[in-house]
């Protein structure tokens, strides 16, 4: 299958080592860190301001990440997504900020007033739309979006990233990294 | 699948006068009557664990309080816990320069991510069993009470026996009085009485410490009013009630819960004591040895399309009827004469007067039948029978609501042929199974005005 070449986004910055499938929608000022994997059919829309995605993140199919301004005060703010996060199939994220080691499970929705710290899990289908900051290691689960604090944060998905880096190029066209920054150490745990 | 959706629109009247959708009813082939879940006898066949599918004999299950000893539920959300393995590198005791990887196991919930490490429970070196059990703090008291109840039951039983004996004795006495009783009988009676009293004598009811009622509670600590509630550290009511013997208040006290056993159940007709439903003994199997659901024997009536109704105005409603039997089945519909209860009948209905013939159910050819040829074969009246497809017909009834508003409900008597194929198989000499006519009352809710 031959994917149509998407029009070149001048504001798109892909670090060397990142794996971005061509068949996804990247609109606006987006920076994608090294070793981050973006599956086909993901949508990242930097609407109200730039989106900066860190390293070792996995963004799966049909995930939508939008930088939306929830109020006038934070229009133009930067949506920073840290490292080692997993965005599972079909989740919808408009958060203010996302830290490290979080998992947003399938079909979960994180509203534009939510700030996610580190080690949090938003369970399948859970919807967060209040004005809040999730404390570290929060787990939101179940149809009533119940919460608990777990002791350990979810482990990094290194094996999965290695696997995807091997497999995805066999079946999909990739976007070429256009930034070769060696400021950061290549492997960060 | 449509049979199991919106099941409350068409209901059949069970022999016990309760109304149920046909998929919930059974047909006893010995009494030839409909039975429902409320008028059959339920029997426990085998308790088994729904997770590891291990069968447990009823006695053992009772001892283990109907719980599996190897499978656990999450104390937070109730999902089944999984055993997870993790490798640890530790120095080799024989050669300090080398290290060995030791596998340890812990339990984790895949849904809310709770795991046994959350409560500082030590990892296990074996994958199954061996998980530490909590000791019920009240076990002594409970055992005492149970012991006591057992004794009490025994005393009561002895009492009953004695009463029986006393009665007999008075009778004996009378007999004695009238010089009718042989002395042997008397002695026999006496001896049995003495043995009874002896049995009672060697076990006496222990003096049980009575329970102490709680009269006052400590006042709530000041922190309760001054500190913000630590919701993430406190358990919820469901968490406490799922383990009534411990009722943990702190999340760190939550402990894996042994999985409840479930059971294979069989249903028995109360009148003839034949089985109506008996599942396969093996818990892995979802098959039934005996399954006399009414769906397999009684023609199923369904409403084809919703209609609009007006008060006192006739509306044509198309119903469908399908034949579960492998024989062509003749069906007649008639009014229920004395149904005046407006709860179940709010419209006049004009039913097909002729007999309806349902074609046999033939699984392989069910989807290739051509309507026209079949209609010709059965000489259908197109005004009456709208369509015919395989074992199903669509027929028209004329409905006139007699209430100005509310639900339009009709009822009728469904009379159909029934061939008892199992009995026929037993008496193989007569090739054609005997035809019986069964009657069922059918109640339909067609919609609202
Ligand atoms: Zn019944
Ligand atoms: Zn089990
Ligand atoms: Zn759980
Ligand atoms: Zn019976």
The greatest inter-chain interface is formed by:
A-B, 13 and 11 residues
As for the number of domains of chain A, it is 1
The Cα radius of gyration of chain A reads 16 Å
Describe the largest sheet of chain B.
Answer: 6 strands, antiparallel
SSE succession of chain B: EEEEEHEEEHHHHEEEEEEEEEHEEEHE
Number of helices of chain A: 1
**CA distance, first residue to last residue of chain A:** 37 Å
Write a concise synopsis of the structure shown.
The complex is a heterodimer of chains A (189) and B (449). Chain A has 189 residues and is mostly beta strands.
Write the layout of secondary structure elements.
The complex is a heterodimer of chains A (189) and B (449).
Chain A: E1 12-14, E2 19-20, E3 25-27, E4 30-32, E5 37-38, E6 43-46, E7 51-53, E8 58-59, E9 64-67, E10 79-81, E11 86-87, E12 92-93, E13 97-98, E14 103-104, E15 109-110, E16 114-116, E17 121-122, E18 127-128, E19 132-134, E20 138-141, E21 146-149, H1 158-171
Parallel strand pairs in A: 1-4, 2-5, 3-6, 4-7, 5-8, 6-9, 7-10, 8-11, 9-12, 10-13, 11-14, 12-15, 13-16, 14-17, 15-18, 16-19, 17-20
Antiparallel strand pairs in A: 20-21
Chain B: E1 10-13, E2 19-20, E3 26-28, E4 33-35, E5 40-48, H1 58-63, E6 67-73, E7 81-91, E8 99-109, H2 139-177, H3 183-202, H4 223-226, H5 237-241, E9 257-260, E10 262-269, E11 275-279, E12 288-291, E13 300-303, E14 315-322, E15 329-334, E16 347-350, E17 356-358, H6 371-377, E18 385-389, E19 392-401, E20 407-419, H7 421-426, E21 435-448
Antiparallel strand pairs in B: 1-2, 1-21, 3-4, 5-10, 6-9, 7-8, 10-11, 11-12, 13-14, 14-19, 15-17, 15-20, 16-19, 18-19, 20-21
Helix pairs in contact in B: 2-3
One zinc ion binds at residues 28, 30-31, 269, 271-272, 274 of chain B.
